[in-house]
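cron nightly-structures :: item 1 of 1
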Amino acid sequence: MRKKIMAAAAAMLAAIVSVLLPVTFFANALKLELENVVITQTGTGDIEIIPKDLFELCNIDAGAATLTINLNSLIDTVTSFAGGSLSGRTVILAAPSKDSAKLNKYLTLAHISFEDDLVTCVGEGFASNCSNLTTISFGSKINTIGKNAFSNCKSLQGTSGTTLDLSNVEKIG
């Protein structure tokens, strides 16, 4: 009888926790699903931010030529998700997860500007095949660019009189 009571109490506690905390545990990682973004923690402790639609997440019109990425509104959520500190962790901004929101679908996209204090890595395949993308401003926090992040961006270059500033980038690919 005692075992049945303990099992029932454990089941009730698990049900309450699953309703209150939308965090999924799976092999070596954690996952937090929000309205417009999924946040995961990899087995190495890095944090990956996977937007469903990056233009929507950044509150930018889908026809805009410039995508200004500022995810500072997620800093508290991501820090809390990571256990209270991002120290020593890479924060990766992944390519959007929705097929219709992949960056190469936005034919007017010519410039991407990273202006937040959260993202330190541009994820693998982030803006690949963006045919009209000409410039990128990485800001001061980006120090890693993932494999093929900007592959087949045939128009990518520095703007007139400038060069593509990679001074903070320590690793590419």
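cron nightly-structures :: done
The first strand starts at residue 23 and ends at 26.
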